[in-house]
Protein backbone atom coordinates (compact mmCIF):
# COMPACT_ATOMS: atom_id res chain seq x y z
CA UNK A 1 0.00 0.00 0.00
CA UNK A 2 1.36 3.43 -0.86
CA UNK A 3 1.42 5.77 2.11
CA UNK A 4 0.78 9.39 1.08
CA UNK A 5 3.72 11.63 1.95
CA UNK A 6 1.90 13.70 4.56
CA UNK A 7 0.89 10.65 6.58
CA UNK A 8 3.21 9.18 9.17
CA UNK A 9 4.67 5.97 7.75
CA UNK A 10 4.43 3.80 10.84
CA UNK A 11 1.76 2.94 13.35
CA UNK A 12 2.91 2.84 16.96
CA UNK A 13 2.27 -0.69 18.26
CA UNK A 14 0.09 0.32 21.22
CA UNK A 15 -2.22 2.39 19.06
CA UNK A 16 -2.31 -0.17 16.26
CA UNK A 17 -3.88 -2.51 18.78
CA UNK A 18 -6.51 0.08 19.56
CA UNK A 19 -7.46 0.29 15.86
CA UNK A 20 -8.28 -3.39 15.77
CA UNK A 21 -10.21 -3.49 19.05
CA UNK A 22 -13.90 -4.32 18.77
CA UNK A 23 -16.15 -1.40 19.79
CA UNK A 24 -16.95 -1.72 23.49
CA UNK A 25 -20.71 -1.53 23.84
CA UNK A 26 -20.80 -2.23 27.59
CA UNK A 27 -20.92 0.39 30.29
CA UNK A 28 -17.52 -0.60 31.65
CA UNK A 29 -15.16 2.31 32.33
CA UNK A 30 -13.13 3.41 29.35
CA UNK A 31 -9.67 1.83 29.45
CA UNK A 32 -6.65 4.12 29.64
CA UNK A 33 -5.13 4.73 26.27
CA UNK A 34 -1.89 6.18 24.98
CA UNK A 35 -3.28 9.70 25.17
CA UNK A 36 -4.31 9.39 28.84
CA UNK A 37 -0.91 9.90 30.50
CA UNK A 38 -2.09 13.40 31.43
CA UNK A 39 -3.97 11.73 34.28
CA UNK A 40 -0.70 11.29 36.16
CA UNK A 41 0.02 15.03 36.04
CA UNK A 42 -1.47 18.14 37.55
CA UNK A 43 -4.41 19.42 35.53
CA UNK A 44 -5.10 23.08 36.30
CA UNK A 45 -8.58 24.61 36.18
CA UNK A 46 -10.54 21.35 36.37
CA UNK A 47 -13.92 21.37 38.14
CA UNK A 48 -14.36 19.54 41.42
CA UNK A 49 -16.98 17.11 40.21
CA UNK A 50 -18.97 16.10 43.30
CA UNK A 51 -20.01 12.72 41.85
CA UNK A 52 -17.04 10.82 40.36
CA UNK A 53 -19.27 7.85 39.44
CA UNK A 54 -21.49 10.12 37.38
CA UNK A 55 -18.42 11.62 35.68
CA UNK A 56 -17.19 8.12 34.84
CA UNK A 57 -20.56 7.12 33.41
CA UNK A 58 -20.89 10.25 31.29
CA UNK A 59 -17.36 10.07 29.90
CA UNK A 60 -17.79 6.34 29.18
CA UNK A 61 -20.87 7.22 27.14
CA UNK A 62 -18.99 9.99 25.32
CA UNK A 63 -16.17 7.60 24.55
CA UNK A 64 -18.64 5.48 22.60
CA UNK A 65 -20.37 8.40 20.88
CA UNK A 66 -19.68 9.28 17.25
CA UNK A 67 -16.88 11.78 16.75
CA UNK A 68 -17.91 15.38 16.07
CA UNK A 69 -15.22 16.07 13.48
CA UNK A 70 -13.01 13.75 11.50
CA UNK A 71 -9.25 13.39 11.50
CA UNK A 72 -9.26 14.15 7.76
CA UNK A 73 -10.96 17.49 8.37
CA UNK A 74 -8.42 18.36 11.06
CA UNK A 75 -5.58 17.46 8.72
CA UNK A 76 -7.09 19.76 6.12
CA UNK A 77 -7.03 22.59 8.62
CA UNK A 78 -3.40 21.80 9.42
CA UNK A 79 -2.63 22.17 5.71
CA UNK A 80 -4.50 25.49 5.56
CA UNK A 81 -2.64 26.76 8.62
CA UNK A 82 0.64 25.66 7.04
CA UNK A 83 -0.17 28.15 4.28
CA UNK A 84 -0.57 30.79 6.98
CA UNK A 85 2.78 29.83 8.51
CA UNK A 86 4.39 30.31 5.10
CA UNK A 87 2.73 33.70 4.62
CA UNK A 88 0.39 32.48 1.89
CA UNK A 89 -2.85 32.87 3.86
CA UNK A 90 -4.40 34.68 6.81
CA UNK A 91 -6.51 33.15 9.58
CA UNK A 92 -9.60 34.59 11.20
CA UNK A 93 -10.68 32.99 14.47
CA UNK A 94 -13.76 34.30 16.25
CA UNK A 95 -16.86 33.64 18.24
CA UNK A 96 -18.30 33.77 21.72
CA UNK A 97 -16.21 34.00 24.83
CA UNK A 98 -18.47 31.32 26.31
CA UNK A 99 -21.12 29.53 24.28
CA UNK A 100 -24.22 28.66 26.28
CA UNK A 101 -26.75 25.87 25.86
CA UNK A 102 -29.72 28.23 25.67
CA UNK A 103 -27.81 30.56 23.34
CA UNK A 104 -27.27 27.77 20.83
CA UNK A 105 -30.10 28.65 18.48
CA UNK A 106 -30.32 28.62 14.70
CA UNK A 107 -30.45 32.41 14.59
CA UNK A 108 -27.50 33.01 16.87
CA UNK A 109 -25.30 30.48 15.06
CA UNK A 110 -26.32 31.93 11.70
CA UNK A 111 -25.61 35.51 12.81
CA UNK A 112 -22.18 34.60 14.19
CA UNK A 113 -21.27 32.74 11.05
CA UNK A 114 -22.53 35.57 8.90
CA UNK A 115 -20.44 38.09 10.85
CA UNK A 116 -17.33 35.96 10.38
CA UNK A 117 -18.02 35.56 6.66
CA UNK A 118 -18.57 39.29 6.26
CA UNK A 119 -15.24 39.93 7.99
CA UNK A 120 -13.55 37.28 5.86
CA UNK A 121 -14.68 38.90 2.60
CA UNK A 122 -13.16 42.22 3.63
CA UNK A 123 -9.93 40.60 4.79
CA UNK A 124 -9.59 38.41 1.71
CA UNK A 125 -9.88 41.43 -0.53
CA UNK A 126 -7.36 43.42 1.50
CA UNK A 127 -4.83 40.65 2.07
CA UNK A 128 -5.23 39.18 -1.42
CA UNK A 129 -4.67 35.73 0.05
CA UNK A 130 -7.14 33.08 1.24
CA UNK A 131 -8.59 33.64 4.69
CA UNK A 132 -8.87 30.47 6.78
CA UNK A 133 -12.01 30.64 8.91
CA UNK A 134 -12.13 29.07 12.38
CA UNK A 135 -15.16 29.68 14.61
CA UNK A 136 -14.74 29.80 18.38
CA UNK A 137 -17.80 27.65 18.13
CA UNK A 138 -19.25 24.19 18.66
CA UNK A 139 -17.25 23.45 21.80
CA UNK A 140 -16.43 26.71 23.59
CA UNK A 141 -18.42 25.77 26.70
CA UNK A 142 -15.75 25.70 29.41
CA UNK A 143 -13.97 28.64 31.00
CA UNK A 144 -10.82 28.94 33.10
CA UNK A 145 -11.29 31.46 35.90
CA UNK A 146 -9.00 33.76 37.86
CA UNK A 147 -10.67 32.76 41.12
CA UNK A 148 -12.33 29.46 42.08
CA UNK A 149 -15.20 31.18 43.87
CA UNK A 150 -17.43 34.21 43.51
CA UNK A 151 -18.79 36.21 46.44
CA UNK A 152 -21.92 38.34 46.31
CA UNK A 153 -22.85 40.17 49.49
CA UNK A 154 -21.89 37.56 52.08
CA UNK A 155 -22.56 34.48 49.96
CA UNK A 156 -19.62 32.60 48.39
CA UNK A 157 -20.22 29.98 45.70
CA UNK A 158 -18.09 28.20 43.09
CA UNK A 159 -17.29 30.47 40.13
CA UNK A 160 -19.16 29.88 36.87
CA UNK A 161 -16.88 27.72 34.71
CA UNK A 162 -18.95 27.56 31.55
CA UNK A 163 -22.14 25.69 30.74
CA UNK A 164 -20.16 22.47 30.39
CA UNK A 165 -19.56 22.58 34.14
CA UNK A 166 -22.17 24.60 36.03
CA UNK A 167 -24.86 27.26 35.61
CA UNK A 168 -24.42 31.03 35.47
CA UNK A 169 -27.27 31.64 37.92
CA UNK A 170 -25.91 32.52 41.36
CA UNK A 171 -27.42 29.75 43.50
CA UNK A 172 -25.83 26.73 45.21
CA UNK A 173 -27.69 24.25 43.00
CA UNK A 174 -26.79 25.99 39.76
CA UNK A 175 -23.13 26.55 40.64
CA UNK A 176 -22.52 22.91 41.66
CA UNK A 177 -20.59 21.15 38.87
CA UNK A 178 -22.73 18.52 37.17
CA UNK A 179 -21.04 16.02 34.86
CA UNK A 180 -24.24 15.51 32.87
CA UNK A 181 -23.49 18.91 31.39
CA UNK A 182 -20.60 17.32 29.47
CA UNK A 183 -23.13 15.32 27.51
CA UNK A 184 -25.07 18.52 26.80
CA UNK A 185 -21.85 20.13 25.62
CA UNK A 186 -21.42 17.29 23.15
CA UNK A 187 -25.05 17.58 21.97
CA UNK A 188 -24.90 21.37 21.61
CA UNK A 189 -21.60 21.14 19.77
CA UNK A 190 -23.09 18.56 17.40
CA UNK A 191 -26.14 20.75 16.76
CA UNK A 192 -23.94 23.80 16.10
CA UNK A 193 -21.68 21.89 13.74
CA UNK A 194 -24.71 20.62 11.91
CA UNK A 195 -25.93 24.17 11.35
CA UNK A 196 -22.49 25.44 10.44
CA UNK A 197 -22.06 22.71 7.85
CA UNK A 198 -25.50 23.45 6.42
CA UNK A 199 -24.86 27.19 6.18
CA UNK A 200 -21.30 26.91 4.98
CA UNK A 201 -22.00 24.48 2.18
CA UNK A 202 -25.69 24.98 1.46
CA UNK A 203 -25.46 28.23 -0.48
CA UNK A 204 -26.08 30.58 2.48
CA UNK A 205 -22.37 31.37 2.47
CA UNK A 206 -22.29 33.30 -0.77
CA UNK A 207 -19.44 35.75 -1.29
CA UNK A 208 -21.67 38.22 -3.10
CA UNK A 209 -24.31 38.01 -0.43
CA UNK A 210 -21.73 38.54 2.33
CA UNK A 211 -20.56 41.62 0.45
CA UNK A 212 -24.14 42.84 0.05
CA UNK A 213 -24.56 42.61 3.84
CA UNK A 214 -21.37 44.63 4.24
CA UNK A 215 -22.76 47.25 1.91
CA UNK A 216 -25.84 47.41 4.14
CA UNK A 217 -23.55 48.16 7.10
CA UNK A 218 -21.70 50.82 5.09
CA UNK A 219 -24.89 52.44 3.82
CA UNK A 220 -27.03 52.31 6.91
CA UNK A 221 -24.73 53.29 9.75
CA UNK A 222 -22.60 56.37 10.35
CA UNK A 223 -19.90 53.94 11.51
CA UNK A 224 -20.01 52.12 8.20
CA UNK A 225 -19.88 55.17 5.95
CA UNK A 226 -16.18 55.62 6.71
CA UNK A 227 -15.49 52.45 4.77
CA UNK A 228 -17.42 53.36 1.64
CA UNK A 229 -14.31 53.45 -0.54
CA UNK A 230 -13.09 50.00 0.38
CA UNK A 231 -16.59 48.51 0.10
CA UNK A 232 -16.86 50.15 -3.34
CA UNK A 233 -13.60 48.54 -4.45
CA UNK A 234 -14.77 45.12 -3.35
CA UNK A 235 -18.01 45.68 -5.19
CA UNK A 236 -16.19 46.56 -8.41
CA UNK A 237 -14.02 43.43 -8.08
CA UNK A 238 -17.07 41.25 -7.73
CA UNK A 239 -18.72 42.87 -10.74
CA UNK A 240 -15.51 42.37 -12.68
CA UNK A 241 -15.51 38.66 -11.78
CA UNK A 242 -19.11 38.42 -12.91
CA UNK A 243 -18.39 40.26 -16.16
CA UNK A 244 -15.53 37.85 -16.82
CA UNK A 245 -18.01 35.03 -16.53
CA UNK A 246 -16.71 33.55 -13.25
CA UNK A 247 -19.12 30.78 -12.40
CA UNK A 248 -21.55 32.17 -9.77
CA UNK A 249 -21.27 28.85 -7.96
CA UNK A 250 -17.56 29.48 -7.51
CA UNK A 251 -18.42 32.16 -4.97
CA UNK A 252 -20.82 29.95 -3.03
CA UNK A 253 -19.96 27.80 -0.05
CA UNK A 254 -16.96 28.20 2.22
CA UNK A 255 -14.63 26.01 4.17
CA UNK A 256 -15.24 26.61 7.84
CA UNK A 257 -13.59 24.99 10.86
CA UNK A 258 -14.46 24.87 14.56
CA UNK A 259 -12.14 25.44 17.51
CA UNK A 260 -12.29 25.76 21.28
CA UNK A 261 -10.07 25.77 24.35
CA UNK A 262 -9.27 22.16 25.22
CA UNK A 263 -9.77 22.82 28.88
CA UNK A 264 -11.78 19.93 30.33
CA UNK A 265 -9.47 17.01 29.89
CA UNK A 266 -12.03 14.38 30.93
CA UNK A 267 -14.21 15.52 28.04
CA UNK A 268 -11.39 15.81 25.52
CA UNK A 269 -9.98 12.45 26.53
CA UNK A 270 -13.36 10.76 26.08
CA UNK A 271 -13.66 12.19 22.57
CA UNK A 272 -10.12 11.29 21.51
CA UNK A 273 -10.16 8.70 18.75
CA UNK A 274 -7.60 6.68 16.89
CA UNK A 275 -7.46 7.54 13.20
CA UNK A 276 -7.82 4.22 11.38
CA UNK A 277 -5.67 5.54 8.51
CA UNK A 278 -2.62 6.00 10.68
CA UNK A 279 -3.27 4.73 14.21
CA UNK A 280 -2.65 8.22 15.57
CA UNK A 281 -4.80 10.00 18.15
CA UNK A 282 -7.03 12.96 17.31
CA UNK A 283 -9.28 15.10 19.45
CA UNK A 284 -12.62 14.78 17.67
CA UNK A 285 -14.44 17.44 19.72
CA UNK A 286 -13.31 20.14 17.25
CA UNK A 287 -10.80 20.74 14.50
CA UNK A 288 -8.58 23.21 16.34
CA UNK A 289 -7.94 23.11 20.09
CA UNK A 290 -5.88 25.52 22.09
CA UNK A 291 -4.20 25.55 25.49
CA UNK A 292 -5.14 28.60 27.55
CA UNK A 293 -2.85 31.07 29.24
CA UNK A 294 -3.76 29.59 32.64
CA UNK A 295 -3.11 25.96 31.72
CA UNK A 296 0.09 26.13 29.67
CA UNK A 297 2.39 24.72 32.39
CA UNK A 298 5.05 22.78 30.47
CA UNK A 299 4.95 19.99 33.05
CA UNK A 300 1.19 20.01 33.37
CA UNK A 301 -1.54 17.74 32.11
CA UNK A 302 -2.73 19.97 29.27
CA UNK A 303 0.62 20.15 27.50
CA UNK A 304 0.97 16.38 27.91
CA UNK A 305 -2.46 15.69 26.39
CA UNK A 306 -1.94 18.13 23.52
CA UNK A 307 1.43 16.57 22.70
CA UNK A 308 -0.38 13.28 22.05
CA UNK A 309 -3.08 14.45 19.66
CA UNK A 310 -2.47 15.23 16.01
CA UNK A 311 -4.90 18.12 15.48
CA UNK A 312 -3.65 21.59 14.65
CA UNK A 313 -3.28 23.24 18.07
CA UNK A 314 -2.70 26.63 19.62
CA UNK A 315 -1.05 27.93 22.77
CA UNK A 316 -2.16 31.25 24.24
CA UNK A 317 0.84 33.32 25.28
CA UNK A 318 0.43 36.17 27.76
CA UNK A 319 2.97 38.90 28.58
CA UNK A 320 4.87 36.79 31.13
CA UNK A 321 5.98 34.20 28.56
CA UNK A 322 9.69 33.96 27.78
CA UNK A 323 11.24 33.19 24.41
CA UNK A 324 12.79 30.03 25.91
CA UNK A 325 9.37 28.87 27.02
CA UNK A 326 8.06 29.45 23.51
CA UNK A 327 10.86 27.27 22.15
CA UNK A 328 10.05 24.61 24.74
CA UNK A 329 6.38 24.56 23.61
CA UNK A 330 7.54 24.08 20.04
CA UNK A 331 9.82 21.25 21.13
CA UNK A 332 7.16 19.45 23.14
CA UNK A 333 4.18 20.07 20.92
CA UNK A 334 5.69 20.06 17.46
CA UNK A 335 8.90 18.03 17.61
CA UNK A 336 8.72 17.38 13.86
CA UNK A 337 8.50 21.17 13.24
CA UNK A 338 5.57 20.65 10.85
CA UNK A 339 4.09 23.88 9.53
CA UNK A 340 0.42 24.29 10.47
CA UNK A 341 0.58 22.08 13.56
CA UNK A 342 1.36 24.85 16.07
CA UNK A 343 -0.13 28.33 16.41
CA UNK A 344 1.01 30.84 19.00
CA UNK A 345 -1.91 33.06 19.94
CA UNK A 346 -0.37 36.06 21.65
CA UNK A 347 -2.52 38.08 24.06
CA UNK A 348 -0.18 40.62 25.57
CA UNK A 349 -2.38 43.67 26.05
CA UNK A 350 -2.08 46.87 24.03
CA UNK A 351 0.42 48.36 26.45
CA UNK A 352 2.82 45.37 26.34
CA UNK A 353 2.70 43.96 22.84
CA UNK A 354 5.38 46.22 21.38
CA UNK A 355 7.78 45.36 24.25
CA UNK A 356 7.20 41.64 24.59
CA UNK A 357 6.43 40.32 21.11
CA UNK A 358 9.67 41.31 19.28
CA UNK A 359 11.97 39.21 21.52
CA UNK A 360 9.64 36.26 21.23
CA UNK A 361 9.29 36.37 17.46
CA UNK A 362 13.01 37.00 16.96
CA UNK A 363 14.14 33.98 18.97
CA UNK A 364 11.50 31.64 17.61
CA UNK A 365 12.36 32.69 14.05
CA UNK A 366 16.11 32.49 14.64
CA UNK A 367 15.63 28.88 15.78
CA UNK A 368 13.82 27.98 12.59
CA UNK A 369 10.60 27.11 14.39
CA UNK A 370 7.58 26.72 12.10
CA UNK A 371 4.74 28.51 13.84
CA UNK A 372 1.66 30.49 12.92
CA UNK A 373 1.46 33.82 14.75
CA UNK A 374 -2.04 34.97 15.67
CA UNK A 375 -3.06 38.00 17.71
CA UNK A 376 -5.78 37.78 20.35
CA UNK A 377 -6.34 41.47 21.13
CA UNK A 378 -9.10 40.74 23.66
CA UNK A 379 -7.72 38.93 26.70
CA UNK A 380 -4.93 41.34 27.61
CA UNK A 381 -7.26 44.34 27.53
CA UNK A 382 -10.04 43.49 29.97
CA UNK A 383 -10.92 45.75 32.88
CA UNK A 384 -13.85 46.51 35.14
CA UNK A 385 -15.83 49.61 34.20
CA UNK A 386 -17.17 51.93 36.89
CA UNK A 387 -20.57 50.36 36.24
CA UNK A 388 -19.16 47.01 37.46
CA UNK A 389 -19.21 45.42 33.98
CA UNK A 390 -16.16 43.61 32.67
CA UNK A 391 -15.32 45.40 29.46
CA UNK A 392 -12.71 46.22 26.82
CA UNK A 393 -12.06 49.36 24.81
CA UNK A 394 -12.34 49.06 21.04
CA UNK A 395 -9.33 51.38 20.76
CA UNK A 396 -7.16 49.08 22.90
CA UNK A 397 -8.18 46.11 20.79
CA UNK A 398 -7.24 48.00 17.65
CA UNK A 399 -4.01 49.21 19.20
CA UNK A 400 -2.93 45.66 20.10
CA UNK A 401 -3.62 44.48 16.56
CA UNK A 402 -1.67 47.46 15.18
CA UNK A 403 1.24 46.60 17.48
CA UNK A 404 1.12 43.00 16.28
CA UNK A 405 1.33 44.09 12.63
CA UNK A 406 4.07 46.63 13.38
CA UNK A 407 6.26 44.05 15.13
CA UNK A 408 5.91 41.48 12.36
CA UNK A 409 6.49 44.06 9.67
CA UNK A 410 9.65 45.27 11.40
CA UNK A 411 10.97 41.72 11.72
CA UNK A 412 9.92 40.58 8.27
CA UNK A 413 7.72 37.81 9.70
CA UNK A 414 4.12 37.03 8.82
CA UNK A 415 1.34 38.45 10.98
CA UNK A 416 -0.79 35.37 10.45
CA UNK A 417 -4.19 36.27 11.80
CA UNK A 418 -6.48 37.40 14.56
CA UNK A 419 -8.49 35.65 17.25
CA UNK A 420 -11.42 37.69 18.56
CA UNK A 421 -14.40 37.32 20.83
CA UNK A 422 -17.46 38.48 18.93
CA UNK A 423 -21.12 37.91 18.37
CA UNK A 424 -23.50 38.46 15.50
CA UNK A 425 -25.74 40.62 17.67
CA UNK A 426 -25.60 44.30 18.52
CA UNK A 427 -24.68 43.75 22.14
CA UNK A 428 -23.20 46.49 24.32
CA UNK A 429 -20.21 44.84 25.95
CA UNK A 430 -17.08 46.58 24.57
CA UNK A 431 -16.63 50.34 24.81
CA UNK A 432 -16.11 52.67 21.86
CA UNK A 433 -16.05 51.80 18.20
CA UNK A 434 -17.58 54.13 15.70
CA UNK A 435 -20.93 53.90 17.50
CA UNK A 436 -19.11 55.40 20.50
CA UNK A 437 -20.43 53.05 23.16
CA UNK A 438 -20.06 54.55 26.64
CA UNK A 439 -19.93 53.05 30.14
CA UNK A 440 -23.53 54.13 30.68
CA UNK A 441 -24.56 52.09 27.59
CA UNK A 442 -23.07 48.81 28.79
CA UNK A 443 -26.14 47.67 30.71
CA UNK A 444 -28.42 47.94 27.63
CA UNK A 445 -27.44 44.63 26.04
CA UNK A 446 -24.75 43.09 28.21
CA UNK A 447 -25.42 39.43 27.46
CA UNK A 448 -22.12 37.59 27.64
CA UNK A 449 -21.80 34.70 30.05
CA UNK A 450 -18.17 35.59 30.74
CA UNK A 451 -16.01 38.14 28.87
CA UNK A 452 -17.16 41.10 26.72
CA UNK A 453 -17.48 40.47 22.98
CA UNK A 454 -17.37 42.79 19.99
CA UNK A 455 -20.84 43.47 18.66
CA UNK A 456 -21.74 42.70 15.04
CA UNK A 457 -20.99 46.28 13.99
CA UNK A 458 -17.79 46.55 16.01
CA UNK A 459 -16.62 43.30 14.39
CA UNK A 460 -17.21 44.63 10.88
CA UNK A 461 -15.51 47.86 11.79
CA UNK A 462 -12.50 45.92 13.10
CA UNK A 463 -12.37 44.00 9.81
CA UNK A 464 -12.36 47.23 7.77
CA UNK A 465 -9.61 48.69 9.96
CA UNK A 466 -7.62 45.47 9.75
CA UNK A 467 -8.01 45.60 5.99
CA UNK A 468 -6.37 49.00 5.99
CA UNK A 469 -3.47 47.59 8.05
CA UNK A 470 -3.12 44.62 5.70
CA UNK A 471 -2.97 46.92 2.70
CA UNK A 472 -0.39 49.15 4.37
O1 LIG B 1 -12.20 34.09 28.83
C1 LIG B 1 -11.22 34.01 29.55
C2 LIG B 1 -11.27 33.72 30.97
O2 LIG B 1 -12.09 32.66 31.23
C3 LIG B 1 -11.75 34.92 31.66
O3 LIG B 1 -11.07 36.04 31.19
C4 LIG B 1 -11.56 34.73 33.11
O4 LIG B 1 -12.22 35.74 33.69
P1 LIG B 1 -12.09 36.05 35.25
O5 LIG B 1 -10.80 36.78 35.41
O6 LIG B 1 -13.29 36.90 35.52
O7 LIG B 1 -12.15 34.76 35.98
C1 LIG C 1 -9.49 32.02 28.47
C2 LIG C 1 -9.21 32.49 27.29
O1 LIG C 1 -8.10 33.15 26.96
P1 LIG C 1 -6.71 33.16 27.73
O2 LIG C 1 -6.34 31.75 28.00
O3 LIG C 1 -5.83 33.81 26.73
O4 LIG C 1 -6.90 33.96 28.96
C3 LIG C 1 -10.12 32.36 26.15
O5 LIG C 1 -9.72 32.58 25.02
O6 LIG C 1 -11.29 32.04 26.39
UniProtKB/TrEMBL annotation:
Recorded superkingdom: Bacteria
Gene Ontology process terms (BP): amino acid biosynthetic process; aromatic amino acid family biosynthetic process; chorismate biosynthetic process
Protein keywords: Amino-acid biosynthesis, Aromatic amino acid biosynthesis, Cadmium, Cobalt, Manganese, Transferase
Pathway it works in: Metabolic intermediate biosynthesis; chorismate biosynthesis; chorismate from D-erythrose 4-phosphate and phosphoenolpyruvate: step 1/7
Pfam family, one: DAHP_synth_2
Residue positions binding Mn(2+): 97, 379, 421, 451
Binding site for phosphoenolpyruvate: 136, 293-294, 316, 347
Enzyme class: transferase
Cofactor: Mn(2+); Co(2+); Cd(2+)
E.C. no: 2.5.1.54
Catalytic activity annotation: D-erythrose 4-phosphate + phosphoenolpyruvate + H2O = 7-phospho-2-dehydro-3-deoxy-D-arabino-heptonate + phosphate
UniProt entry tagged with the keyword Manganese: yes
GO MF term set: 3-deoxy-7-phosphoheptulonate synthase activity
Cofactor: binding details: Binds 1 divalent cation per subunit. The enzyme is active with manganese, cobalt or cadmium ions.
Family: Belongs to the class-II DAHP synthase family.
Protein name: Phospho-2-dehydro-3-deoxyheptonate aldolase
Source organism per UniProt: Streptomyces roseochromogenus subsp. oscitans DS 12.976
Phylogenetic placement of the source organism: Bacteria, Bacillati, Actinomycetota, Actinomycetes, Kitasatosporales
Amino acid sequence: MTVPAERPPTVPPTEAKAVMREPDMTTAPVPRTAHSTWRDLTAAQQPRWPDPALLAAVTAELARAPELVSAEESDRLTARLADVTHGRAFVLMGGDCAETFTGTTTDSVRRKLRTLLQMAVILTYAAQVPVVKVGRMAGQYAKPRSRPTETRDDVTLPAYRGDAVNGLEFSPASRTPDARRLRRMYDSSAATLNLVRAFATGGSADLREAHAWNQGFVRDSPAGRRYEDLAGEIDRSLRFMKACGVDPHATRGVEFFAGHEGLLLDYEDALTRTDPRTGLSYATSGHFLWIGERTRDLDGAHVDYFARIRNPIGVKLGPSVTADEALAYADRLNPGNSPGRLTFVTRMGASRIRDVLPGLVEKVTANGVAVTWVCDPMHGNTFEATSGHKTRRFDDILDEVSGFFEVHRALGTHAGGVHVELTGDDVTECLGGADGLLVQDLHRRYETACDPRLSHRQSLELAFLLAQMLRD
